[in-house]
Amino acid sequence: SESAEKKKRKIECGVCFDGPDEIEASGRSLVSTNCGHIFCSDCIKLAIKNCKQCPQCRKRLTMKQFHALYI
């Protein structure tokens, strides 16, 4: 059985914390990196441009190492 904490977990950008509705309404995309973390397209592009790494786990990333999520 899952804990109550896991059931409450929602999908959102790991940087700006916007959910799918806010992301879509503003013309951004929800994306996942190759390391499995979820961000909005604007936040991950900025993070890769500035730091060349995942904002959550710091794995080295390039602009080709994330893809859109269709949920």
Structural description of this entry:
The structure is a single chain. This protein has 3 helices and 3 strands; from the N terminus they run ααββαβ. By secondary structure, it is an alpha+beta fold. It has a domain at 20-68: Herpes Virus-1 (2-Layer Sandwich), CATH 3.30.40.10. It has a 3-stranded antiparallel sheet with strand order 2-1-3. Strand 1 (30-33) and strand 2 form a beta hairpin. The mean pLDDT is 92.
Q: Can I get a quick summary?
A:
Keywords: Ligase, Metal-binding, Zinc, Zinc-finger. The protein is an alpha+beta fold. It has 3 helices and 3 strands.
Task: Throw out a few tags for this protein.
71 residues, alpha+beta, Herpes Virus-1, globular
Task: Provide the helix percentage.
Answer: 25-40%
Per CATH, the architecture of the domain at 20-68 is 2-Layer Sandwich
Query: SS-based structural class?
Result: alpha+beta
What's the level 1 CATH class of the domain at 20-68?
Answer: Alpha Beta
For the secondary structure, the number of strands is 3
> How many distinct helices?
3
